[in-house]
Amino acid sequence: MTSSALLTIILMPFLLLALATVLTWVERRLLGLWQDRYGPNRVGPGGLFQAVADGIKILFKQDWIPPFADKGVFILAPAIGMMTVLLSFAVIPFTMGIGIASNLNVGLLFILGMMGLGVYAVVLAGWSSNSKFALLGGMRAAAQMISYEVFMGLSLLGVVMMAGSFSLHDIVTAQAGLWFIIPQCLGFAVFLLAGIAETHRLPFDLPEGENELGAGFHTEYSGMKFGMFFIAEYAGIVLISSLVTTLYLGGWRGPLLPPAVWFLLKTGSMVAFFILLRASLPRPRYDQLMALGWKVLLPLSLLNVMVTGTLLMLRASL
Amino acid sequence: MFNTLRTLLLTALHAFHRRATVQYPEQQPYLPPRYRGRIILSRDPDGMERCVACNLCAVACPVDCISLQKTETDGRWYPEYFRINFSRCIFCGFCEEACPTYAIQLTPDFEMGEYARPNLVYEKEDLLISGTGKYPDYSFYNVAGIPIPGKARGASERERPPVDLHSLLP
């Protein structure tokens, strides 16, 4: 292992955590922009240090564990949420050279596995909190994330078929001529929706729907444990955005500008899109969410797999 | 589907709208002259207190935040103390409407924040201003038929001298 790879491994978590923290500010400013107001603009230049102020505040809050909670699991749950998201970044190729294990030959499967494990964070949080709202939120989260994981994997099959590899690096390389968003537009749409549901962001934030569940699975959490859920959610947004960039938008590829800038630009605009979704769309009912998943998106992703497979077969036989 | 995309577009276009927020401490809002803010006690053009301690404001006040006590010097009535508890005041302006002498008036000033609650109780010295407020020429004792030192009975504006009951002349 070279020293630069080691440096990347050490620096990456810090960068990601800082990025996720800054994202809280970015989201609030962007929401403000789209709602004709300012958002936090007092602390530091443009309000940038609001993120720092919030971090300091949340660190000094009382970190209370309810006496009725299952203490061990209660503490473990946010850690799982954080770890799975951060580990997923290991296989993302940021540029040709930068990336921890972007050549991993089962990179995509690794990410899917980490997302599967991420369900445990919310489920265990809801279960160990030992209260109604948290349990309901955890249950919803489990049902939502497991069902959306099914066709998230299926929608990715098209990309894997076209690239002929599970390695994210190879997938980006295969997009040299044409970004996969064009031949795989159906898969892209399904993956994007599934990604929103996976990070349980609005409009699919039913696990924490505050008007019916208090705060859902993290109702009983306070202090930095709540902060970890919070940061994990924002890191999850960055993860899904960078995944979309890698899988469908050609990763670091692009003319003129250096690769890292292209990657950041694409990921950043995806993050902005996530925030735009939050600014504009209402939350669906829970059965609507499930119906959309199983009755619309699952058939669509199956269709995508079928069409892609057929076309690839035809092209190979010609 | 189309509706959702349209919603997204319309929300995104809001980025180019003017923001509704007023950046308050730097950007002061316009307050009309009749804005109901901090309450003051005004003086008449001669610099005397207008308040005659009639208690009508205290009666009109729906939250009972005004407290005063009458005293008298040379035929003129004054409040011995006049106290407004601004932590109770709802700035309804009923006191101003009730006041027969234009003494109590509401001003376009609302920046009265305090760190300690007792500091919100304003005494007469805090309420009295040196000017006449909204009614520059009005002086209660010049139009009321009450004799005060320097003004005999019947010497007020638009007042005839009192009728001499013992005279037979018209």
Could you characterize what this model shows?
Chain B: One of its GO terms (cellular component) is plasma membrane. Chain B: It is an enzyme of class 7 (translocase). Chain B: One of its GO terms (molecular function) is quinone binding. Chain B: Keywords: 4Fe-4S, Cell membrane, Iron, Iron-sulfur, Membrane, Metal-binding, NAD, Oxidoreductase, Quinone, Repeat, Translocase, Ubiquinone. The complex is a heterodimer of chains A (318) and B (170). Chain A is mostly helical. Chain A has one domain. Chain A is 69% helix and 0% strand. In chain A, helix 5 packs across helix 6, helix 5 packs antiparallel against helix 7 and helix 5 packs parallel to helix 11. The model of chain A has no long low-confidence stretch (mean pLDDT 86). By secondary structure, chain B is α+β, with helices and mostly antiparallel strands. Chain B has a domain of 105 residues: Alpha-Beta Plaits (2-Layer Sandwich), CATH 3.30.70. Chain B has a 3-stranded antiparallel sheet. Chain B has a two-stranded antiparallel sheet with strand order 1-4. In chain B, strand 2 and strand 3 form a beta hairpin. Chain B is elongated and about 100 Å long.
Offer a few descriptive terms.
heterodimer, A: mainly alpha, globular, B: 170 residues, three-stranded antiparallel beta sheet, 5 strands
In short:
Chain A is mostly helical and 318 residues long. Helices cover 69% and strands 0% of the residues of chain A.
The CATH architecture of the domain at 32-136 in chain B comes to 2-Layer Sandwich
**Count of discrete structural domains of chain A:** 1
Count of strand segments of chain A: 0
Low-confidence stretches of chain A: none
Q: In percent, how helical is the residue content of chain A? A: 55-70%
Which strand-content bin applies to the residues of chain B? Answer: 15-25%
Structural class of chain A: mainly alpha
Order of helices and strands of chain B: HEHEEHEEHH
Strand order of the largest sheet of chain B: 2-3-5
What is the count of DSSP helices of chain A, taking H or I runs of 4+ residues? 11
- Averaging pLDDT over every residue of chain A, what do you get? 86
Question: Which structural category do the helix and sheet elements of chain B fall into?
Answer: alpha+beta
What's the quaternary structure here?
Answer: heterodimer
Q: How many strands, which pairing sense, and closed or not: the largest β-sheet of chain B?
A: 3 strands, antiparallel
Q: Span from first to last CA of chain A?
A: 44 Å
Number of H/I helices of chain B: 5
Using a beta-carbon cutoff below 8 angstroms, give the protein chain pair with the largest interface and the number of residues from each chain. Answer: A-B, 12 and 14 residues
Could you tell me the strand content of chain A as a percent range? Answer: under 5%
Q: Which value, in Å, is the CA radius of gyration of chain B?
A: 25 Å
Mean pLDDT of chain B: 90
Order of helices and strands of chain A: HHHHHHHHHHH
Subcellular location (chain A): Cell membrane; Membrane
Transmembrane segments (chain A): 73-94, 106-126, 146-166, 178-197, 226-249, 261-280, 292-314
Keywords (chain A): Cell membrane, Membrane, NAD, Oxidoreductase, Quinone, Translocase, Transmembrane, Transmembrane helix, Ubiquinone
Subunit structure (chain A): NDH-1 is composed of 14 different subunits. Subunits NuoA, H, J, K, L, M, N constitute the membrane sector of the complex.
